[in-house]
Amino acid sequence: MQERAGSTVSTSSCSILSVSPLPEDHDSLVELLREYGWMIQTTATLAGAQRALRERSFTLVVCESDLSPGRWKDVLSEIQPLTKPPFLVVTSRTADEHLWAEALNLGAYDVLGKPFERVEVTRTLSMAWLHWMYLHGRAAGPLARGAGA
């Protein structure tokens, strides 16, 4: 457990599947999130993501928008039927309003632009993790008690 911003938050219970054909995406995520101690599993393909999602549960999936073959929407369709689906965060070098609106309207949690910025990555993924924990009854700190508690 680690003390952050007035609440006790376990830093070891978030598991992330990183899906990207670009090794630098995986390397950046691992480096940016090292201090949190979160488990990050990586795969370069849609088929690898499908296999990983069948083999274990994840809290978050961070997915490059274009997997060639495949797209982030294919990953979204894999996670939506799961009992406790992980939140999907789409990444793209060309993240724009169209991608952001489409991703959120179809059920993704958020979109991250690349190159990754430490503050934006940690804020987005931390909030996604806390939101996921809250929805599944595992949150710690003020989020679990509700607003105004």
In the CATH hierarchy, the architecture is 3-Layer(aba) Sandwich
**Most strands sheet:** 5 strands, parallel
What is the H level of CATH, i.e. the homologous superfamily? Response regulator
The name CATH uses for the topology is Rossmann fold
Name of the top-level CATH class: Alpha Beta
* Domain tally: 1
Cα-to-Cα separation, first versus last residue: 21 Å
Written account of the structure:
It is a single chain. This protein has 149 residues and is an alpha/beta fold. The chain has a single domain, classed as Rossmann fold. Helix content is 41%, strand content 21%. It has six helices and seven strands; from the N terminus they run E-E-E-H-E-H-E-H-E-H-E-H-H. The chain has helices spanning 23-33, 46-55, 72-79, 97-106, 118-135, 142-145, and strands at 2-4, 7-9, 15-19, 39-43, 60-64, 87-92, 110-113. Strands 4-3-5-6-7 form a five-stranded parallel beta sheet, sandwiched between helices. Strands 1-2 form a two-stranded antiparallel ribbon. Strand 3 (15-19), helix 1 (23-33) and strand 4 form a beta-alpha-beta unit. The longest helix has 18 residues, at 118-135. Mean pLDDT is 86; it is low at 1-12 and 141-149.
